Amino acid sequence: MALEIERRFLVQGLAWRRHIRWQAQLQQGYLVANTDDDFTARVRLATGDEAVAGAWLTIKARAEQCLEALGHLPEGLVRQEFEYAIPEADAVALLALTPKWLSKVRYGLDFPGGEWVLDVFEGANAPLVLAEVELEQQSLEQGLALEPPPWCGRELTGRHELSNAALARRPLAIWPEAERLALFNSEID
Question: pTM score, two decimals?
Fold first, then answer.
């Protein structure tokens, strides 16, 4: 079984820009996404740097049966993930069928501690900027002890309302103003 182990953070400022290795424009559509993100089926089309351009069909699900083997972990840290490359023409056709979608620019970063990416959301989810670090199962303890870079603010790991699927269903633009302000103006954890 493929596992995705990642931590997510709200980004503050622009200091992350000096760490950019690559960038891609992403269009993501959700074919299936239940409200608590127990299960999602997503299509993604990435254009931009040749090394990261392509199209994928991705299925994500809770990893309950794995959590016992890995020990007590924060909610939302580990999920099953199955990702398959598909022809770009298929991705375009599937995106046209998705009722819920989002767009963002993704940057690959050269920061230690795992595979770091940063998403600058567009459209109804702007001005949201999130960083994610994907961890290897072998270095899970190191990942949990990871000291995030100074441009990372509050940790958002396990915050279902800020998952990509949730942001496609309920974009930031339709959040009540008090919720948006609380997200962006809260103290750093």
Answer: 0.88
